[in-house]
Amino acid sequence: MASRLVLGCGSVGRQLAVAESSRTHVVTEDEHRVETLRADGIAATLGDPADPATVAAVSFEPDTVVVGSDDPAQNCTIAAFAADAFPEARLFAFTGQEPTDAQRERLHRLADDVHDPADALSSFMLDRVGDDGLQTRRLMRVLRTAEPPLAVFAHDNPDPDAIASALALVRIAERAGLEAEACYFGDISHQENRALVNLLDLELQTFSSDEALPEFGSVALVDHSRPGINDQLPPETDIDIVVDHHPPRAPVEASFVDLRSNVGSTSTLFADYLRRLGIDPTPELATALLFGIQVDTDDFSREVAEEDFDAAAYLVSFVDAAKLERIESPSVSVETVEILASAISNRDVRDGVLASYVGAISDRDALAQAADQLLTMDGVSTTLVFGTIDDTVFASARARGSELDLGEALREAFDQIGSAGGHADMAGAQIPVGGLGAEDETDTAIRDVISERFFETVGVGTNTAPAAVYAKDTHLGLAEALPDHDDNDDAA
């Protein structure tokens, strides 16, 4: 990881140190500043930043040296020392307040980059205080006043995006001084998801529906937005924080709400929070977040936005590349192969829309993999693959090159008898078998009811073409008014 040495710590130097706290060491003569930096968890040494004996106490060879005092004359002295003491490091100097032309010229001769502190500070403050940083500030305000401990719930059987987002919120809560724990119901069954958790040794607490939950002071939802919908929390649970990238079906109530369906993953939103707060993610967290973005955007090819690329670019320098490669290439389970074979054998294709019932399963994530694979078949633009676990039908749908909005289509088809949701090209549903209204609950009845509801909703099987039943939009939910002004995209 790159390291930074800040010599002299004026107004801009301090902001830079806070923004890059975990990889920065500051040397300054300002005793009060040393105390405040250390209180923020930033390494700081009291002494003359141009004194070799003082700087020798720094225990690493910096990649970058920043000359950051407010005094132009002192900056010239420090820059001359730093250029000689760290010849291999990149030298970045601020001019200080009101430098003379001679001082500015000298700094340009000594340093690789020279910047005016007013411009640098303005850019820094706009990034954190402007409209783009508003949500981050609101999130921190809610975290600082929330009752401990905070339970951060991913959706059931969480995918990489949900897992990484939960862990990122736990890390941000720690910065706010709030005890927090990442939680979920169900199982982590998809082979990539298991590899992610096991290889990175991620800490998550799992619960079953029949056990009493501990007493949490506050609750957050990530990668889904309503209690009791795609999680096993009681529907009446009071929620403090919601962060999701799925378009909401109904109003979302919480002290903090950030719903943005114009990005490809919830991990993208959390990467932006971390960057704005100056929190360097651990290699494990960065790897999980990047993998979450990759999975939800299908390697940056599906519903990807500029923000997703920006988040990936920010995370990549922290990522454990070797472990990421191992996570991306896990072994495929026998059941996954069997479900794919069953989906191919049992497919019903009408006007480019495919539906396939695979019977009883134990790994619902395999449905999404089968839906993705069947979408590559010639002449197929939309897929729905569904199977049963106990007394519930789980369905996963995919689309490409179509005006059909799958999220809204599945809601229209199944919301009255179960729950459904997702995005325009990736969605899912879960329906109690007893709610199908069939005369019996045989495989044939389940197949016919689900398939026909889906075909009828998307308008195929007759002479009608698939309809665009839902227009794309950006949803930004803000529950508080302030004066300053899955692979579970199958999340239902």
TrEMBL record:
Q: Enumerate the spans annotated as DHHA1 domain.
A: 352-445
Q: Which GO terms describe its biological process?
A: potassium ion transport
Tell me which domain of life the UniProt entry assigns to the organism this sequence originates from. Answer: Archaea
Gene3D superfamilies in the record:
inorganic pyrophosphatase (n-terminal core), NAD(P)-binding Rossmann-like Domain
Cross-referenced SUPFAM superfamilies: DHH phosphoesterases, NAD(P)-binding Rossmann-fold domains
One Pfam family for this entry, by name?
A: TrkA_N
Q: Transmembrane region positions?
A: none
Q: RCK N-terminal domain spans which residues?
A: 5-93
Give GO MF terms, alphabetically. nucleic acid binding
Positions of the DDH domain: 151-293
**What is the protein named?**
Bifunctional oligoribonuclease/PAP phosphatase NrnA
